[in-house]
């Protein structure tokens, strides 16, 4: 029988509490032993709600706790680098939300720390675990659409995150489009060689304070000769709208819909069309499957489907897109690495 992995959760906000509850209630092989969040009464409240003995406002308590094997880090992006380095130094295995860190320099440092301390580090690119994207990947590898030649990705948020989040997010390309850069590389089985990005503030003026935008587009080219485009929006009042199209030489794949349920209600008032309201609803399965995979990787000492090194490539693409956007869409070329694992997993 596999050993039980004792886990602590760091950061109990929008996504952190959701991951922590999943871990406590659903992930086999894991035991939630501690929760940490420095602000308000979040840690104490989560501990009471989830029946966890230990809670703390000081994340260092978690790193120094010999009872803990692994941590899940769902804190603001600006804190990821510091958290990962501390966790690795104390020999804790790491699941960290995307993006890996906020800067590429920090990404280098955490990759080194993970290597030096020989811990597992998986990054939260959950689309690779979503059953629809995963099915698409298997069909592409089986040759069902021939050679993939064009990728289209759509990521539209139903509600714009609050200013406090935007401030620490690293901007729309690093925070939002990075999901599409990752899934584009994975589905196309190819690395991105150039980006050209544009963006505009169409609805939320506070974006400009952080050199950020609420509507953006990145044109991408791959080392396979394929091309694509990635749209990111914070203005999707029709629902949380996440879709992809992969056009191949022999056919196409369409992933995702903004429809949440299939039952259609028709009555005197009209009809209902329940749309997906948020990321937790759309990626319910994927968020659970990625945590299950993380625990399995720790138990079996195996490399995760999405590593820190692989996540650095996504950050390089996002950094190039941000630079392109700031330079009026200038085409930026990227050096491609052949080390990433883009197979089905
Ligand atoms: N994969 C996805 O789909 C997805 C979706 C949303 C957010 N995220 C990522 O998750 C991370 C958190 O996002 P969120 O929306 O949950 O943010 P949030 O602001 O709602 O929550 C962050 C939490 O971390 C706490 N915190 C701050 N500093 C801390 C520290 N040093 N130690 C422990 N806790 C600390 C805050 O008090 C807060 O409770 C971000 O990196 C974001 O990019 C990923």
UniProtKB/TrEMBL annotation:
- Native organism is Scopulibacillus daqui
User: Among its keywords, does the record have ATP-binding?
Assistant: no
Please name the GO terms that the record assigns under molecular function: oxidoreductase activity
Q: What is this protein called?
A: Scyllo-inositol 2-dehydrogenase (NAD+)
Q: Does the keyword Repressor apply?
A: no
EC code(s) of this entry: 1.1.1.370
**Classification of source organism:** Bacteria, Bacillati, Bacillota, Bacilli, Bacillales
User: What domain of life does the native source organism fall in?
Assistant: Bacteria
Q: Which UniProt keywords apply?
A: Oxidoreductase
Pfam families xref list = GFO_IDH_MocA (PF01408), GFO_IDH_MocA_C (PF02894)
Q: Which residues form the Gfo/Idh/MocA-like oxidoreductase C-terminal domain?
A: 137-325
Q: Which family does it belong to?
A: Belongs to the Gfo/Idh/MocA family.
**What InterPro entries does the annotation carry?**
Gfo/Idh/MocA-like_OxRdtase_C, Gfo/Idh/MocA-like_OxRdtase_N, Myo_inos_IolG, NAD(P)-bd_dom_sf
Query: Domain Gfo/Idh/MocA-like oxidoreductase N-terminal spans what residues?
Result: 5-125
